[in-house]
Specification:
- The chain has seven helices and five strands, in the order ββαβαααααββα.
- The protein is an alpha+beta fold and about 170 residues long.
- The protein has a single domain, classed as Glutaredoxin.
- It has a five-stranded mixed sheet.
């Protein structure tokens, strides 16, 4: 498994881990609230994103995750992640390649990686990791390693983070 995609200081007082996929409507709907929470927390939080692309439920999610990994190889994971979470483009190969081009990535390299399924094993390893941690659906969040029930407004996530930080309500 490749290293997970993380932002924020490694020694932040709280770590938020999200298991998601780019085809999941609930993940895309949650993403703006997650970003707002991360902006609010600043350096007090480390955020880790893990692919949980179950092909039986989301037939295009695995290829989209592979496109994000190809973008990571070009130093643009978070930009591709944001694009896939917010723009909700078609997740077919040509659209993913066009998204990579819009980010200034090497289109030939991304096209080759998607055709060869270069990052499939890494994406599947993330899925296996999630399954081993009890993840069953997307989005699933963990705060400091503890699963947090997903709520549409992410109030449970906010409460878990505040609890981990010792913030009184």
């Amino acid at each position: 498994m490749t290293a997970p995609h993380a932002r924020g200081p490694a020694d932040a007082p709280v770590t938020i881990e999200m298991f998601g996929n780019y085809e999941c409507l609930h993940c895309r709907r949650a993403w703006p609230a997650v970003e707002a929470l991360l902006d609010e927390l600043g350096e007090r939080a480390r955020f880790v994103y893990r692919h949980f692309a179950r092909p039986a439920d989301f037939p295009h999610a695995e290829l989209a995750a592979e496109a994000a990994e190809a973008a990571a190889a070009g130093g643009r994971f978070w930009e591709m992640h944001a694009l896939l979470m917010t723009e909700a483009p078609s997740l077919h190969a040509e659209t993913l390649i066009a998204s990579a081009a819009s980010l200034g990535l090497d289109v030939a390299r991304v096209r080759e990686a998607l055709a060869a399924r270069t990052y499939r094993d890494a994406v599947r390893a993330e899925m296996a990791y999630g399954l081993a941690r009890g993840v069953a659906r997307t989005p699933t969040f963990h705060v400091d390693g503890v699963a947090v029930p997903a709520a549409a407004d992410l109030s449970a996530l906010r409460e878990a983070v505040e609890g981990a930080l010792g913030v009184a309500r």
